Amino acid sequence: MGEPNLAVEIGGISMKNPVIAASGTFGYGQEFAPFVDLNRLGAIIVKGLSLEPSPGNPPPRIVETCGGMLNAIGLENVGIEAFVREKLPFLQTFNTPVILNIYGRSIDEYVELAGRIQRLDAIAGIELNISCPNVKAGGAFFGTDPKRAFQVTKAVRQQTELPLIVKLSPNVTDIKTIARSVEEGGADAISLINTITAMAVDVENRRPRLASIVGGLSGPAIKPVALRMVWETAKAVHVPVIGIGGIMDVTDAMEFLIVGARAIQVGTANFVDPRATVEIVEGLKAYLIKHNIADIGNVTGSLVT
Ligand SMILES: Cc1cc2nc3c(=O)[nH]c(=O)nc-3n(C[C@H](O)[C@H](O)[C@H](O)COP(=O)(O)O)c2cc1C
User: Fold this and answer.
1) Whole-angstrom Cα distance, residue 216 to residue 227?
2) What are phi and psi of 74, to 5 degrees?
3) How far is the CA of 191 from the centre of ligand 1 (A)?
4) Is the C-beta atom of 212 inside 6 A of ligand 1?
5) 20 to 30 A from 52, CA-CA: which of 4, 44, 107, 283?
């Protein structure tokens, strides 16, 4: 057998392989360039952008937990204008698709952001964060209600022709209903999961470990929950699904592909090993060769039940 094919197409975005750097865990790409050849990634999703710069939540806003981490960064970011001026030119020197993750406090803000991005050069797509649990009256407001999830997706869809990925919150009772709503609203792809709402307590002073009390759990601890939700979603929609949640190595990545994901995102693992993404790319290739599989697409949805 010749070289296996790792390339995938996700909602109109062509990628060399299905391994994507997850939003908020890979900075604006430049921070990881000393460790990773950014040309080797399937795509890069930058830290969530808002219309105005945001300082995020007060510290402490990161806590290590058993098998994961709890964060309440609160979507700190430089804002879309500074991103375009200071961060984007560097990313444009690579041939890896750049996807902008955005969040707004209202539908109007999402639409305004999408409109500005539509006018930029060399942006491969938009990932709509309707799921961040850390912004009061913000993201989760849209991500936990099927009707609002539909409305924000549709409004952004009407504003942009760029490939549109909608990123779902796991903090819902029925992920399938939300997934179908955003598909109906015009999403080209669905990514999931964002972090799971969680908390930790310091028993000495009986205070919450996070200043904002509640934050989002990520890392290996959430993988089984994420897998179940990706499996359910992949069966419920026709658009491609991108699996996220506790993917630390190639075995984790394979699990998500097998249950139906066409691509995967690597988040918390980047903090443990900045080379996690490229190691997973290499591992996928080795898996295909070992199992004599010609195309990574043949792994997607191959779960034997
Ligand atoms: C420190 C941190 C910051 C994050 N920031 C964002 C963000 O700006 N936008 C977003 O959609 N998701 C954000 N996420 C969620 C991740 O992209 C990912 O969905 C989640 O962490 C689960 O994947 P993991 O277990 O591989 O980390 C963030 C996660 C962490 C840990």
Assistant:
1) 17
2) 75, 30
3) 12
4) no
5) 44
Query: Is residue 162 one of the residues assigned to a domain?
Result: yes
For ligand 1, what atom is nearest to the CA of residue 192?
Answer: 19
Most ligand 1 atoms within 8 A of CB, residue of 69, 195, 242 to mutate: 195
Whether residue 212 is contained in a domain is answered as no
User: Can you give the pTM of this predicted structure?
Assistant: 0.97
Give the structural domain span for 244. 8-56+74-195+220-298
**How far from the centroid of its chain's Cα atoms is residue 139's Cα?**
14
CA separation, residue 129 to residues 141, 188, 241, 248 (Å)? 11, 14, 15, 22
Whether 66 is in a domain gets the answer no
Confirm or reject: Cβ of 71 under 6 Å from ligand 1: yes
User: How far away, in angstroms, is 144 Cα from ligand 1 center?
Assistant: 17
pLDDT in tens, 66-87: 999 999 988 899 999 999 999 9
Question: What are the residue numbers of the active site?
Answer: 132
pLDDT in tens, 3-26: 999 999 999 999 999 999 999 999
* Angstrom distance (rounded) from CA 182 to CA 236: 12
Q: Is 195 left (phi over 0), alpha (psi -120 to 50) or beta?
A: beta
For the chain, the first-to-last Cα distance in angstroms comes to 28
Alpha carbon of 181 to ligand 1 centroid (Å):
22
Q: Residue 207: inside a domain, yes or no?
A: no
Please report, for the domain that includes residue 233, its CATH number: 3.20.20.70
| Domains contained in the chain, number | 1
